[in-house]
Each structure stands twice: as C-alpha cells, then as structure tokens.
Amino acid sequence: MGDVAVGARSGHDGEEHRGRPAESAVPAADSAVTSGNDSGAAEDDRVTGEHATAGDQGPGGTARTPRKPRSFWKELPILIGIALVLALLIKTFLVQAFSIPSDSMQNTLQQGDRVLVDKLTPWFGSEPERGEVVVFHDPDNWLAGEPTTDPNALQTFLSWIGLMPSAEEKDLIKRVVGVGGDTVECKNTGPLTVNGKTLNEQSYVYAGNTPCSVDDQGGQFKVKIPEGYIWVMGDHRQNSRDSRYNQADKNHGMVPVKDVVGRAVVVAWPINRWDTLPVPDTFDQPGLSAQPAAAGLTVAPQGLALAGVLPVVWWRRRKQ
User: 41-61: per-residue pLDDT in tens?
Assistant: First the structure.
C-alpha cells in the first residue's frame, strides 16, 4: 500500500495503476522523477536552456546543425582593417606620436625621444596655456635649412596611421611662455618676466644656460602678444631658434593658435625616459595672468570625456 501511494500522482494516475501489481508502481514512480518527458523536467530544461527551442529546429522537428565558426585566416583581414581604422581615428582626433629631432628642448626632452601629443582638447576650444610644451606647424618657414629625412614606404604608411612619428610634417616643439594679452620681456641674461612677474625657470632651463640671451639677433626683447597667438621658447635657451629669433617673419615671432597641433603630455620612448610633462610651478604664481582665464575651457573636455565613458559602462553591465 505504501509503495502505491508514492507512485500515484493524480486521479488519472490512480486509474492507470488500478488493478496492476503493486510492484510495478515503484519503477513508474522512479521513471516520473528521471524522465525528460515529465513536466517538471521540461520546466528545468527551459531554465537551463539545454533543450533545443523551436527556433533551433529544422524541418520536421530535427535539431538544426550549428553554423561552423569562420576560420581565423578569414577573420584576420577584417581585424587588421578595424585596427587600422581605429589607429587612424586615434591619430586624427586623440593622440599622435612625435619624434624630437634636435636638442632645443634639453634637458626636458632629448633628441630621439618620442612624445605623445594630446589632440583632443583643442577640438573643444581649449587653447595653449603658459608652461605647456606644445607641438605646432611651422608658422613661417622656421625650419628653413634644416635637414629632412627621406622615409621609406613602410615608414610613410605607419606614420600616416599614427604608429610612427611623421618625418615629412613640418612641426616644431617648444614651451609656451606667453599667451594672448601677455607682455613678455628679456633683459640682459634674465630672468624672463611675464606681465612684470619674474619666472623661476631653474627646474627646466638647460643647466648652464641663462634664461635670456645677450645678443642683437632677438635675445633681448619686450613683446606684447595679441589674442590668438602664443610666444614660445626652447628650454635649451642658447640652442633654440624660437619666437625670439623669428621676429622678422609675418607673425613677428608669434605662433598662431590655429597652428598648434596639441600639447605634449608624455615622453613615451625610450622606456627609461618615460615621464609626464607637467606645467612648472612658476607658471602658477598669483598675479601672473594679465586677464582672468576662461575656466570652462579646462573643465569641458573632462566633462565630455566622462559623458563618453558612461555609455560604455552601461553597455558592459548589460553584457554581464
């Protein structure tokens, strides 16, 4: 009697077992627990996803054969294409590598160093600030007479997508010492003054150099910088052809802001030279600015970057 009670499931089940030997009820009960046709088992299958659904079945209810994954060699050209497009976009809008060709920025930068230049913030209206190391296009033939290299086809391609510094672009790298509205002055051997404030340049001017050069070629000067321009100087003051020595050009030695590629932020190569390029403390002294800075220009890029990250975080959480 006890065995029959265990095997019985409903009134209909009772009818099915009526008149049968009691022994047959026990296997029936076990079959009900383990069989894949049981309604409880079917429910478990829906949870775990082990059984094929109607969409996975072919004609006649047969299971559809899984699609064979594409071979690695067929996917490789697609992956390479995506990587090249991303590299080109990064070079165009975000970061680009540049090579240091001379000693004019010693000891901050050495000849042969590779620096990474931030090209993103200028897209949001941010302009160069005092103390920043910037890369800019040659304003008016500053590089006349400088030797140029002849890159091979591979170097040209890699520089085009941003994986190598470009050898053909006419770009220079200097430190910004004055922006629009500033008055910059050098007397005798220095110190250099901006809006009447003395700059302590010991931390970055090449050891043994004086902040100002005593010569009649441009080393002694007092200039008022118009809006939309910057005044740049090399850290190796006695070995840098910068704004001081290009005052006879069409911009009077100034660099138009529109010609600035971006700010150099990191020395990326060689590895033992890896370092950041922060603004020296002397440019943060009170009263240096001739006019209040537009705070929104420095805040906007970070805010927009955060806004761009949020969709990615949301998408990753949905994938988990």
Answer: 334 333 334 344 444 454 555
- Does 204 have pLDDT greater than 70? yes
The pair of three-digit structure tokens given for residue 223, joined into one six-digit string: 């200039």
Half-sphere exposure of 214 (CA within 13 A, CB side): 6
C-alpha–C-alpha distance, residues 138 and 136, integer Å: 6
pTM of the entire structure?
Answer: 0.62
Whether 243 is a known active-site residue: answer no
Of the residues 119, 159, 166, 174, only one is catalytic, namely: 174
> How far is it, in rounded angstroms, from Cα 234 to Cα 19?
106
Task: List CB contacts of 282: < 8 A, sequence separation 6 or more.
Answer: 131, 199, 200, 201, 203
Provide the token pair at 28. 């029936």
Q: Which of 91, 99, 104, 240 is catalytic?
A: 104
For the question of residue 91 being annotated catalytic, the response is no
- Output the six-digit token pair for 284: 């943060």
